[in-house]
Amino acid sequence: AFYDVITVGAPAAHFQGFKNGGLQKLLSRYETEKKSYSTAYQCIYYSPENTAKAREILSMVAQLQPLICSLAERLLLQAQQRCGHGLQEALKSLEEKTEQFVHSLKDELVKNALFALHTARPGYMNKSQISNRPETHVTQTATSDATPNQNQSREPNVVVCNNVSGRETPPKNEARQPLKQQDLPHHEEYDEEEWDRVWANVAKGLNCVIAMVDKLQEQDNNNQESAPDQALADVITSHSPAADWREQLSPLVAALKDCVKEVAERACRSMTFVLLQEAACSTPSGLQLQQRRDTVFSQALAALACGFVMRLYSGIEDNGFMRQLHTVGLVAQFESLLSTYSEEIGMLEDMEVGISDLHKVMFKITEAASDDPNNLQPTVSGRRDHYTVEVPLPLQTFQTLPDEVRQGKLLQVFPVLFNVGINEQQTIAERFGDISLQERINQKNFDVLETYYKSLSDRIPLENLPSFHMQPDVKELLETLGQNVVTKKKKNVEILWLAGAICRRLNGIRFTSCKSAKDRTSMSVTLEQCALLRDEHQLHKDYFVRALDCMRSSRLAQGEGAQWDDPEAGSVANHKPAPRQFYPIALLLVSSHLLVV
């Protein structure tokens, strides 16, 4: 199971071509166009990170607000029943979700968007225009009580707001009376601290509820510790209105719910404004670019779903693996052999964005309706900002899963991409071109892999991870990989070697790809198989090249160069892959059959 590799062609929009580059370059150009477009059409530009954050906040608010209200009602129900243990459990859940709600809105984007929304309103725009005009008379732009019979004097360059239907535009043959500045609707000044106060009221309301619950339980404990002759008085007190827990908690809970509602409404308005600005700034090329991104993502998602199902079935009886799966998640390492030359630059740019978008995918394991193969197929649901892949398992298999997984906990995957070009085109790129794209991708994804390892080591005992005979610990492998990522070296295939070894040590899912998952991919996986036989299963170094030729014989036999001496056999003895083994001369004459691993 540790040796499984999924071979897949590079996720890319081949049908759209790469004349203008791939997704990474096109997205950068698109954002530049949006900035200029926003200036021309007076809309506000928000970066992709901000718009993604806005969608995330809207989703979080839509999920947490009703949940907080239901937990508040549950708290009141437990208070009515005077159940101390149930009251504490309900309070704990309410406190956790409310803190999550407050934390999700603790973002400068919400505050800035509220101010932007305030300044974009017609009243504010009118006030700004008035303050900048030296004349006494101005034209009314948008009022709530305007009627078609009102006579107005109109200046030629005034923008009319909120008059889409034209009902507020007076007939041309009617005379228009000039309006003075004081006739316009009053627009309050924006209080920058207002959002902070409203947002903080939620936390204050929660603290009041917690304090009241503690007070009620403390009084109840004191009553229970009273002398026996006070029993009658306790009974009377317990039925008095002053001692009714629900009545004492209801005003505080209602205040908390009102605060949550007000914050949710303001946050939703501001984040919707951000998304509307994005739509207003979009250029006509945005739709085609989104289509390209969806095309690339669908290919990457299909590969990831395949790899996840394979890894799940192979490790379902491993308690350590299942614990890692629902506690931290799995790393999915994509090994790419694309060159940074010509069209393959665009493919690599497509692949980078597609693999990065996989972080929006979560997995959920469910119980299949039956053992019919049609009922065991994964299904995808959700929207672009969040996808859930449901993986149904047979009943007997499903019952063996940990409770967290059976209860529907979402499982996370951390995608990483490492690329090293190995063909002749990469040689040209290294001598005369630019390989900064490859260097940036490797550095960025190394940081992701390192962060995942730190999270894993903090929450899972490293003794549960698989061990190998010839490899040092993961920390040492990561340090070596970090050094190789920043080292200027031509065709540094040791980056792929180390990344693959780390992924296997971390119970990860491995993918290998080139342009079509045929030639370079098959050379890579066969070399990896031989290396594993040598390192883990005592294959003698003298038989390494012969074993490699045997694995490639069905492909190499079709070319005359199948028999070649390897001048770099010494690097094999040192447990390092030789570039020629990745890409032998005979590879130019191989067949087009896909190697299945």
From TrEMBL:
Task: Please list where the region (Disordered) is annotated.
Answer: 125-190
Amino acid composition bias (Basic and acidic residues), ranges on this chain:
169-189
Its domain of life?
Eukaryota
Biased region (Polar residues) positions are: 126-166
One CC-aspect GO term: cytoplasm
The GO terms describing molecular function are:
phosphatidylinositol-3,4-bisphosphate 4-phosphatase activity
Q: Does the keyword Hydrolase apply?
A: yes
| InterPro entries reported for this sequence | INPP4
Alphabetized, the UniProt keywords read:
Hydrolase, Lipid metabolism
Q: What is the protein named? A: Type II inositol 3,4-bisphosphate 4-phosphatase isoform X4
Q: Which organism is it from?
A: Clarias magur (Asian catfish)
Give the organism's phylogenetic lineage.
Eukaryota, Metazoa, Chordata, Craniata, Vertebrata
